[in-house]
């Protein structure tokens, strides 16, 4: 029963569609209908063509966007490499500046050292010359002292001179009274030993440094030894 009703409804719809189509053709005519169909087909083809064209442009746009993104990535990487290279160059420049400063400091140090060595050589040469002159004066005085003062002068270790006086003690003329003399680093006379000891030896040493009168220095020491001998004999 239900199936029969459905078939009747379908049949009714089909009859209504046929009637509509018949009326439509009678109103617009076959030629107009064909023109509409042609127009429809033309529109469909135009839409299809436009769709394909825009689809192609969309694909090209996507490819272009990918290319642009790729170029942007390359630019970012290049900028990063440039930044790294700039930092590396800055580090190299800083190291070069440090090395240049160190080289300058080293050159200045070498120059100062050379100047100091030159001064030291000049001072050493001057002291050596002064010592040589004083040694020559001592040599000249040697014969005079030996003849007049009963003095014997000996050269001992470390370039020192030993002065030995005799004929001071009347009870024992051969008894030696002696002192040892050297020239220190400053080029001055320095008494390194005295036998028997004299309280005034430091005073005599200072005086000969001031006056450079070596003859008076030796004579004063002999007088001091003689005075000590009389004092010990009394």
How many DSSP helices? 3
Q: List how many beta strands DSSP finds.
A: 4
Give the fraction of residues assigned to helices.
Answer: over 70%
* Main pleated-sheet profile: 4 strands, antiparallel
- Tell me the radius of gyration: 65 Å
Structural class of the helix and strand makeup? alpha+beta
How does the overall form come out from the CA principal axes?
rod-shaped
Mean pLDDT: 79
Strand content: 5-15%
Query: How is the largest sheet built, in terms of strand order?
Result: 1-2-3-4
What is the assembly state of the chains in this entry? single chain
Low-confidence stretches: none
Give the SSE string. HEEEEHH
Distance between the termini: 182 Å
What does this structure look like?
With about 230 residues, the protein is α+β, with helices and mostly antiparallel strands. The chain is about 75% helix and about 10% strand. The protein contains three helices and four strands, in the order αββββαα. It has helices spanning about 1-150, 200-210, 215-234; strands spanning about 150-155, 160-165, 175-185, 190-195. Strands 1-2-3-4 form a four-stranded antiparallel β-sheet, with helices on one face. A hairpin with a 5-residue loop joins β3 and β4 (about 190-195). The longest helix is centred in the first third of the chain and has 148 residues, at about 1-150. It is rod-shaped. It starts with a helix and ends with a helix.
């Amino acid at each position: 029963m239900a199936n029969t009703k459905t078939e009747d409804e379908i049949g009714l719809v089909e009859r209504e569609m046929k009637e509509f189509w018949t009326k439509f053709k009678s109103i617009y005519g076959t030629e107009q209908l064909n023109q509409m169909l042609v127009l429809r087909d033309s529109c469909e083809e135009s839409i299809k063509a436009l769709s394909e064209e825009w689809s192609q442009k969309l694909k090209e746009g996507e490819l272009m966007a990918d290319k642009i993104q790729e170029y942007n990535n390359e630019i970012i990487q290049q900028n990063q490499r440039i930044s790294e290279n700039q930092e590396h160059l800055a580090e190299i420049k800083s190291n070069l500046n440090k090395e240049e400063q160190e080289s300058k400091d080293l050159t200045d140090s070498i120059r100062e050292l050379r100047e100091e060595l030159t001064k030291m050589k000049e001072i050493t040469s001057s002291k050596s010359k002064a010592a040589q002159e004083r040694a020559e004066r001592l040599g000249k005085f040697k014969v005079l002292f030996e003849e007049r003062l009963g003095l014997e002068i000996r050269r001992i270790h470390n370039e020192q001179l030993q002065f030995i006086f005799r004929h001071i003690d009347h009870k024992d003329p051969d008894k030696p009274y002696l002192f040892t003399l050297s020239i220190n680093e400053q080029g001055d006379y320095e008494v390194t030993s005295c036998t028997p000891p004299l309280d005034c030896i430091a005073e005599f040493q200072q005086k000969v440094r001031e006056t450079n009168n070596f003859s008076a220095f030796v004579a004063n020491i002999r007088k001091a030894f003689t005075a000590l001998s009389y004092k010990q004999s009394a």
